[in-house]
Amino acid sequence: MRMYGITGGAGSGKTEAAKRFAALGFSVFDADALGHEIIEPGGAAESAVLEAFGDAILTDGGIDRTKLGALVFQDSAARARLNAIMHPLIHDEVFPVIVDAALLAENGRKEPWLAGLVLVLCSREERLRRLVTRRGLTPVQANQRMDAQSPPEKKLALADYVIHNEGSVEALWDQVDAIAKAVRNEGK
Question: 152-161: per-residue pLDDT in tens?
Protein backbone atom coordinates (compact mmCIF):
# COMPACT_ATOMS: atom_id res chain seq x y z
CA MET A 1 0.00 0.00 0.00
CA ARG A 2 1.37 3.42 -0.92
CA MET A 3 1.17 5.92 1.90
CA TYR A 4 1.34 9.67 1.49
CA GLY A 5 1.72 12.09 4.35
CA ILE A 6 0.04 15.46 4.55
CA THR A 7 1.58 18.07 6.80
CA GLY A 8 1.57 21.78 7.42
CA GLY A 9 1.85 24.25 10.21
CA ALA A 10 -0.92 24.84 12.72
CA GLY A 11 -3.74 26.70 10.97
CA SER A 12 -2.45 26.01 7.44
CA GLY A 13 -5.54 24.13 6.25
CA LYS A 14 -3.98 20.67 6.44
CA THR A 15 -7.06 19.13 8.04
CA GLU A 16 -9.36 20.67 5.41
CA ALA A 17 -7.11 19.26 2.67
CA ALA A 18 -7.22 15.83 4.36
CA LYS A 19 -11.03 16.01 4.44
CA ARG A 20 -11.02 16.67 0.71
CA PHE A 21 -8.78 13.63 0.10
CA ALA A 22 -11.29 11.57 2.11
CA ALA A 23 -14.18 12.96 0.04
CA LEU A 24 -12.29 11.81 -3.07
CA GLY A 25 -12.21 8.25 -1.77
CA PHE A 26 -8.79 8.16 -0.10
CA SER A 27 -8.43 6.50 3.27
CA VAL A 28 -7.26 9.20 5.66
CA PHE A 29 -5.66 8.52 8.99
CA ASP A 30 -5.72 11.39 11.48
CA ALA A 31 -2.66 11.03 13.71
CA ASP A 32 -3.93 13.78 16.03
CA ALA A 33 -7.16 11.85 16.68
CA LEU A 34 -5.17 8.71 17.47
CA GLY A 35 -2.93 10.78 19.73
CA HIS A 36 -6.02 11.88 21.64
CA GLU A 37 -7.27 8.29 21.85
CA ILE A 38 -4.06 6.73 23.18
CA ILE A 39 -3.85 9.13 26.15
CA GLU A 40 -7.45 8.41 27.23
CA PRO A 41 -7.93 6.23 30.34
CA GLY A 42 -6.62 2.78 29.47
CA GLY A 43 -4.96 4.06 26.28
CA ALA A 44 -1.57 2.77 25.18
CA ALA A 45 0.26 5.98 26.14
CA GLU A 46 -1.65 6.99 29.27
CA SER A 47 0.71 5.53 31.89
CA ALA A 48 3.89 6.67 30.12
CA VAL A 49 2.54 10.23 29.72
CA LEU A 50 1.49 10.35 33.38
CA GLU A 51 4.89 9.03 34.43
CA ALA A 52 6.63 11.68 32.33
CA PHE A 53 4.44 14.66 33.30
CA GLY A 54 2.81 13.78 36.63
CA ASP A 55 -0.63 14.33 38.09
CA ALA A 56 -0.64 18.07 37.30
CA ILE A 57 -2.01 17.23 33.83
CA LEU A 58 -5.05 15.38 35.22
CA THR A 59 -8.64 16.59 35.41
CA ASP A 60 -11.30 14.29 36.84
CA GLY A 61 -8.87 11.34 36.67
CA GLY A 62 -8.04 11.69 32.98
CA ILE A 63 -5.27 13.44 31.08
CA ASP A 64 -6.40 16.96 30.30
CA ARG A 65 -5.12 17.73 26.77
CA THR A 66 -5.42 21.47 27.43
CA LYS A 67 -3.11 21.24 30.45
CA LEU A 68 -0.74 18.92 28.61
CA GLY A 69 -0.76 21.21 25.56
CA ALA A 70 -0.05 24.28 27.68
CA LEU A 71 2.97 22.49 29.10
CA VAL A 72 4.45 21.07 25.91
CA PHE A 73 3.83 24.07 23.66
CA GLN A 74 5.96 26.29 25.89
CA ASP A 75 8.70 23.78 26.76
CA SER A 76 10.60 22.12 23.92
CA ALA A 77 12.14 19.48 26.23
CA ALA A 78 8.67 18.49 27.48
CA ARG A 79 7.42 18.38 23.88
CA ALA A 80 10.33 16.11 22.91
CA ARG A 81 9.51 13.76 25.82
CA LEU A 82 5.87 13.61 24.74
CA ASN A 83 6.79 13.00 21.09
CA ALA A 84 9.15 10.19 22.11
CA ILE A 85 6.23 8.48 23.83
CA MET A 86 3.54 9.16 21.24
CA HIS A 87 5.24 8.79 17.85
CA PRO A 88 6.17 5.09 18.10
CA LEU A 89 2.67 4.22 19.30
CA ILE A 90 1.00 6.25 16.55
CA HIS A 91 3.31 4.82 13.88
CA ASP A 92 2.31 1.29 14.92
CA GLU A 93 -1.31 2.11 13.99
CA VAL A 94 -0.68 3.73 10.59
CA PHE A 95 -1.93 1.73 7.60
CA PRO A 96 -3.95 4.12 5.39
CA VAL A 97 -3.16 5.93 2.20
CA ILE A 98 -3.11 9.53 3.50
CA VAL A 99 -1.56 10.19 6.92
CA ASP A 100 -2.63 13.56 8.33
CA ALA A 101 0.09 14.57 10.80
CA ALA A 102 1.49 18.03 11.45
CA LEU A 103 4.80 16.63 12.65
CA LEU A 104 5.73 14.64 9.54
CA ALA A 105 9.25 15.52 8.34
CA GLU A 106 9.73 17.57 11.51
CA ASN A 107 13.26 16.22 11.92
CA GLY A 108 14.36 17.43 8.48
CA ARG A 109 13.84 14.05 6.80
CA LYS A 110 10.84 12.49 5.08
CA GLU A 111 9.75 9.34 6.87
CA PRO A 112 11.01 6.30 4.91
CA TRP A 113 7.58 4.65 4.91
CA LEU A 114 6.05 7.52 2.93
CA ALA A 115 5.71 7.26 -0.82
CA GLY A 116 5.23 11.03 -0.94
CA LEU A 117 4.68 14.11 1.17
CA VAL A 118 2.04 16.81 0.67
CA LEU A 119 2.83 20.16 2.31
CA VAL A 120 0.10 22.72 2.94
CA LEU A 121 1.44 26.26 3.16
CA CYS A 122 -0.01 29.64 3.99
CA SER A 123 1.36 32.79 5.58
CA ARG A 124 2.01 32.95 9.29
CA GLU A 125 -0.44 35.84 9.54
CA GLU A 126 -3.24 33.78 7.97
CA ARG A 127 -2.41 30.79 10.17
CA LEU A 128 -2.58 33.05 13.25
CA ARG A 129 -5.92 34.47 12.14
CA ARG A 130 -7.36 30.98 11.60
CA LEU A 131 -6.15 29.65 14.94
CA VAL A 132 -7.66 32.61 16.78
CA THR A 133 -10.98 32.79 14.91
CA ARG A 134 -11.65 29.11 14.19
CA ARG A 135 -10.05 27.32 17.12
CA GLY A 136 -10.63 29.98 19.76
CA LEU A 137 -6.99 30.28 20.80
CA THR A 138 -5.55 33.50 22.11
CA PRO A 139 -2.84 35.07 19.94
CA VAL A 140 -0.24 33.99 22.52
CA GLN A 141 -1.48 30.37 22.46
CA ALA A 142 -1.60 30.37 18.66
CA ASN A 143 1.95 31.71 18.39
CA GLN A 144 3.16 29.10 20.91
CA ARG A 145 1.67 26.33 18.76
CA MET A 146 3.18 27.70 15.58
CA ASP A 147 6.57 28.21 17.25
CA ALA A 148 6.52 24.65 18.61
CA GLN A 149 6.69 23.29 15.05
CA SER A 150 9.52 23.77 12.62
CA PRO A 151 8.70 26.46 10.05
CA PRO A 152 6.66 24.73 7.31
CA GLU A 153 8.82 26.37 4.64
CA LYS A 154 11.74 24.24 5.87
CA LYS A 155 9.85 21.18 4.61
CA LEU A 156 9.59 22.50 1.05
CA ALA A 157 12.63 20.55 -0.14
CA LEU A 158 11.09 17.33 1.22
CA ALA A 159 7.62 17.85 -0.25
CA ASP A 160 6.53 16.02 -3.35
CA TYR A 161 3.43 18.21 -3.61
CA VAL A 162 2.77 21.71 -2.26
CA ILE A 163 -0.64 23.26 -1.64
CA HIS A 164 -0.74 27.05 -1.30
CA ASN A 165 -3.73 27.79 0.89
CA GLU A 166 -4.26 31.55 1.08
CA GLY A 167 -7.58 31.64 -0.77
CA SER A 168 -10.97 30.00 -0.71
CA VAL A 169 -11.75 26.46 0.33
CA GLU A 170 -12.66 25.79 -3.31
CA ALA A 171 -9.14 26.81 -4.37
CA LEU A 172 -7.76 24.42 -1.77
CA TRP A 173 -10.00 21.64 -3.08
CA ASP A 174 -8.85 22.26 -6.66
CA GLN A 175 -5.24 21.74 -5.60
CA VAL A 176 -6.11 18.60 -3.62
CA ASP A 177 -8.05 17.25 -6.62
CA ALA A 178 -5.00 17.72 -8.86
CA ILE A 179 -2.73 15.97 -6.35
CA ALA A 180 -5.23 13.13 -5.90
CA LYS A 181 -5.25 12.59 -9.66
CA ALA A 182 -1.43 12.58 -9.78
CA VAL A 183 -1.18 10.15 -6.85
CA ARG A 184 -3.66 7.77 -8.47
CA ASN A 185 -1.66 7.90 -11.71
CA GLU A 186 1.57 7.08 -9.84
CA GLY A 187 0.05 3.80 -8.72
CA LYS A 188 -0.69 2.69 -12.30
Answer: 999 999 999 9
